[in-house]
Structure formats: C-alpha cells, structure tokens
Design a protein that fits this description.
about 260 residues, mainly alpha, two-stranded antiparallel sheet, 2 strands, flat
Length: about 260
Amino acid sequence: MLANIVLRTVLKSSAGILRESGAVCSALSAKPWTSNSALLGARVSCGSFAVLPPVRHYARAAKKRRAGSESQLSDLPPTMLKMDYAAVPLAQTTDDIVKRLLSLELANHSEKLRLKTEQLIAKVQRDENDRDSVEVRVAILTAKIRNFREHLQKHHKDKANKRRMLIAIDRRKKLLKNLRLVNYEAFEKVCEQLGITYTFPPEYYRRATRRWLAKKAFCIKVFNEVQKQKKEERLMMKESLASTDTEAAKTTAAGSL
C-alpha cells in the first residue's frame, strides 16, 4: 500500500515537470526572435529534445562584374546615318525625326558592325574598287574577331562562337604570314592601321627524354659513319681515275714511239 502511494506521487511530480517544459517549448517556438540573452545563449531542452537558439542567415555579398574592354563600336557617333542612307542627299535635308530614324541611334547591332567593317576596309584597301585583296580580307576578319571577343566577354560559355573566333584568328594568321613574305610594306601598313600585333609562332620544342637523346646520338653516329664511307669511296674513285689516266698516257707515249 505504501509503495503504491509513493509511485503515485512520483508520477504526479513527473507529469508536472513535463507540463512546465512543454509550456517553455511552446513559448520559445511562438517567439523565435526573443531578445532574452539567457534563452539565446543556452541550449533549451524540451523533454527529450534539445532546442537550438535561432540562427540568423544573412544574404551573400553581390558578385562584382568584371569590367570589360571598350567596344569597337563605341567610336561610332549615334547621330551618324546608316550606311544605306549616308550617300543619299535627301537624307541630309530632312527633319530631325526622320534623321533620328535613319541614324545609328535606332540601328541594330548588325548595321553598326557593317558600318565598322566598311571603315576598316577603307583604311587598308588599295583603291575604291578593291574588295578581294589580302588587306581587305584581313580587315573583314579583324572586325569579326573583335565582335566575337566582345560577345564572349558577356557569354563566356558560348562554345560555338568561340570556335568560330578561333577559326577566324587562324585564317587571319595565314593571310598575314603570306602578306609578310610577299609585301612587307603592305603588311606593316595593315598592322598599323588596324592595330594588330603580329606575334611569331613558337619555335618547335620537344622534351628531351633519354630515349630521344640516345636515338639522336645514334643517328648522328650513323650519319658520320656514312659520310666517312662516302669520303673514302670518293678518294678511291679519284685514285682509280688518276691510275687510268697515267696508263692511258703511257700507252699513247708508247704508240707515238
């Protein structure tokens, strides 16, 4: 009987403790941003669970964009007329609204690029009707390469345009190499007018391994032996020719006697 009474009192006390802890947990969940430093700094246990203090998640710092190089189209003034209307005299005398419609202010990128290409061609072409010389092709490829480079600075994952840019660079290198061998003055003029820095291709380099060094030494040794044999053969041929000449001279002398 006494044991039953003790057991009831223990159960009542444990139930009261559980009620108080549940009230504390509910208060903490209702006010997660409470300013009580004691509750924030300590770990509060709700029954068999541990309630951690609230964590403040701050936003990440914004990434700084890379400052790209200046565009090749930046020197084109917006008041300049498009290429199709630049030679029309009526476009120069119209009102401001029509001029604005025909100017580069409302032109798309392809029209501006076309005008820039024509400007580069005018710098290096041989005469007014020159449209197929090496200098003109270099100017067209230069405008394309710079346009691809500006595009890849904004969209660096565009692999297709990167491949096209590398193909254009290789073509321009071949044209400049041939122009440098044929006409060096025109080559210097093209590089100066278009702002191209021509770099020589790297020299052939091969890593010197033991096998390569041994093979090279063996080849040099074989070459020297072959040259030595050829030299001996030439000396023997000279001696044989000299002996035949002396015998022929003796026979002619004997015949004359």
